[in-house]
Amino acid sequence: MTQREPSPAVPSVPDIAVAPAAPAASAMPAGTPSATVHGGGAWADFRRRVGKNRGAVIALCVLAFLVLVALIGPYITPADPNAQNLRAVLLDPFSPGHLLGTDQLGRDILSRLIVGTRVSLLAIGLALVVAMVVGVPLGFLAGYLGGRFDGLVMRLNDAAMSFPPLLLAIALVAVLGPSLRNAMFAVGILMAPRFLRLVRGVVIGLKEETFVEASRSIGTPTHMIILRHILPNTLSPLTVAIAVTAGYAMLSEAGLSFLGLGVQPPDASWGSMIREGFLYFGRSPWLGIFPGVLIALTVFTFVTLGDGLRDALGREERTES
């Protein structure tokens, strides 16, 4: 019997410690937000997006400066904004003691501009509060409930939007009486249909989402669905709408004050100062130019901020370069 020759021994290969392979990019769950990759959560991602938008950052700085002036304005005015001096009427800018000159009654223009900052921003805030209190709840109910209630609300909303805004505001102020509060109440009522249509459209789209249907199927009450799921998802478009509508509110306040239906003498607002400067434009054009420039700058600030927030709060995730 032939013996089989022993096979040559195979040298053993030493064990090599292999590091675990990094997960492939394709292994990440689809739809993972970029905030998870960079860390810090949604708030950090929002700040990063806003920080990349130079226009939004500048607009935030300008708005913060205006708010600061509105808060401390009465304490930093170089003179009494309502003090009259008939011996120093219509002084040119850079006059001694009056950096921006004086008006037709000898009042310091710079002091009145500083005090008018608070009045103008207060008017914007009042109009936005009225518009949101009226428009947002009705938009939620109309979008979520639908049916006849939705039809009735939208017919009334369309009727309100069919009137010329300025004429309707003048009519409301004529009934309520000329004052800043009544003027901004009228402006808020006119802006409410904008918020109503916006919120209604967002809610109609959200209530058909899968996570809302799942919550409804397990018996979650309607008010809890609205508070937990629908309301947080409406904050993004609502924030953008507030920033953009604030500029419209400022223009409306300036227009009503120019017509004498807003701030009443001797109080100052940028719109009332334009009205006073219009009467003396040939003699002292700076009376209307200075408040006009501030109004244009503030409106542009709100519009730029709204565009920046729209980019930062967009629902679609951006691909990082």
From TrEMBL:
UniProt xrefs under CDD domains: TM_PBP2
Residues in ABC transmembrane type-1 domain copies: 117-306
Transmembrane segments annotated in the record for this chain: 56-76, 121-147, 159-177, 286-305
Keywords: Cell membrane, Membrane, Transmembrane, Transmembrane helix, Transport
UniProt xrefs under InterPro entries: BP-dependent_transpt_permease (IPR050366), MetI-like (IPR000515), MetI-like_sf (IPR035906), OppC_N (IPR025966)
SUPFAM superfamilies cross-referenced by the UniProt entry: MetI-like (SSF161098)
Membrane topology designation: Multi-pass membrane protein
Compartments reported by the entry: Cell membrane
PANTHER family, sorted: D,D-DIPEPTIDE TRANSPORT SYSTEM PERMEASE PROTEIN DDPC-RELATED, OLIGOPEPTIDE TRANSPORT SYSTEM PERMEASE PROTEIN APPC
Recorded family membership: Belongs to the binding-protein-dependent transport system permease family.
Protein name: ABC transporter permease
Source species: Pseudonocardia yunnanensis
